[in-house]
Amino acid sequence: MLRMMAGGIAMVASGTLLAACGSEDAEDDDAAGASGAGPAAVTNTITSSSGSIPDEFVFANEREPNDLLPGWGGGFGPATVLRALYQPLINPRISLDDNGFVISEMEMVLASAYEQVDETRWRFVLREDVRFHNGEAFNAQAVKVNFDYNTDEAVLAKYDRSDQLGVAIAACEIVDDMTVDFVLTKPDNEVPGFRLRGLLFVPPSLLEAQGFDSLFENPVGTGPYKFESWTRGQDLLLSKFEDYWKTDAFGANMPAVRFIVRPEASVRAQTVTAGEAHFAYNIGMELAQTLDQSIQGGGFQSSGIRLNNTIEPTSNYDLRKAMNLAIDRQGIIDSIFLGAATPLAFFGFQPVELDPYPYDPEEAAKLISDGGWDGTELELIYGENRIPEEPQLAEIYKASFEAVGLKIKLSRLDANQYNDISGADFNLQPPVVMETTSSGNSGEIAGGLRDKYGCDGTGTFCDLAFDAEYDELAALTGDERTAKLQSIAERLHLEETSRIWVAGVQQVHGIAANVETNFPTNTYAFMDDIRFT
Predict the structure, then answer these.
(1) Mind listing the pLDDT tens digit for each residue in 219-271?
(2) How is domain 63-261 classified at the architecture level of CATH?
(3) Phi-psi category of 343—alpha, beta or left, where left has phi over 0 and alpha has psi -120 to 50?
(4) In whole angstroms, how far apart are CA 507 and each of 48, 58, 314?
């Protein structure tokens, strides 16, 4: 196992990430589902008439999906809905032990086993007991039909989707009725965990007859819950899929799940206090401490600021370094995240030993003065809304940069505007953008480097020589991979400094007294990992 290095500082450094909110005994909290001790307990009123298992589990979400097609659906909260309906072949899961060491595993979902046949061929053996919600059997033909559909250029254009599979996988080939091979375009050991987790399956008969059109508001998958109804802007109801293949699922005792939408974190937290919901998604540590019980897990974010290396004045290395030195990472972690985070110098969950830039406002001010940037106005864009602390962070960043001589204009956008601007061509993006990413959270990293530091990515750094190194990294394993990653990370951090990595932030959720969870640390909250006590 590798200690999870976050800029050379293990996640255990905060002392609270694995412990519960306000808890004094992490061991007891772990045994109780990592619940926290906050103010006096509030009696939860969402129970069945008999006082036993309620008729439905109510989940207060930050937003609803854009649609119910298999995919992201507009963010991590909406993905919780979609991942209850649809499933991948395998799912990477990373947690931390009590000492802050990474526990990494590849969970078998619709596949029962997989292996690398040669440099460019991966073989997957499928589960034989899986059925879709409409009764169709899941088999190799279903995998191939779904893969071919999701890599069809006409389909991608029709539904305005980017090609996440075909860029790395040339073909899906049927070996026998329950075995498929994925043939890669080039050697890439990250394809199983990085690319294939995004291939979610629907009945081939529906794809062949109607494509995705029938699934927009009537989804059919293999997940633990099946679709019942959706009143946009109000609630979305799923019922337990009685023929679900995973008979020993942790959350198998919930008859139905109702997702309600509460965009404000404070309102989501109040739904638990008021007995309106059993689960308040992604409310942050400050609000969690007002509740009787909370959980940290099911979502880890590497948060910071993207600096545009391709336009003035942030194209200047000394200015980028000065802006890094202006940020008090530990102060932010203590005051905003209340310890439920750790300083970063690189993506989280990576075996890289790097120290974050120190907090040195005097040196930052000198660099800005020497470079002639005193009074220079920079626009700082935010509005991604992945973590509830964004508005507070924006104000702190503004104050930090202005304290060393810059002038900052804050521009808060809605999520759609933010996505449009942050995904634009490099020269059309603003110089300073707040960004929170889950790249690297599942153990992979070459894909995250291509996205955040690649010429074809969403970041604002481009060097073809680095792009070639990311491709080399993807084909490596073991110590060779670790050494290569360390070299890349050091140069990006110290010689290029194209980002301000600030903190690895754990998602914090409020939960009712009659709920327990089994979340891993990274990326997704799965309904299989939540249940009534």
Answers:
(1) 999 999 999 999 999 999 999 999 999 988 888 889 999 999 999 999 999 99
(2) 3-Layer(aba) Sandwich (3.40)
(3) beta
(4) 29, 19, 31
- What DSSP letter does each residue of 428-493 carry, written as one string? GS-SEEEEEE-TTTTS--HHHHHHHHSTTSSSS---HHHHHHHHHHHT--HHHHHHHHHHHHHIII
Segments in 187-313 forming alpha helices (H): 204-210, 265-273, 284-288
- 39 preceded by cis ω (within 30°)? no
The 10s digit of each residue's pLDDT in 315-344 is 999 999 999 999 999 999 999 999 889 999
Architecture of domain 302-503: Roll (3.10)
| Domain boundaries of the chain, sorted by first residue | 63-261, 302-503
Q: Are 529 and 309 in contact (CB under 8 A)?
A: no
85, 230 contact by CB (below 8 A): no
Angle subtended at Cα 505 by Cα 302 and Cα 494, rounded to the nearest 5 degrees: 40
Fill in the amino acid letter for 531: R
DSSP 245-260: S-TT-TTTT-SEEEEE
Angstrom distance (rounded) from CA 412 to CA 533: 41
C-alpha 300, offset from chain centre? 6
Full-model pTM = 0.87
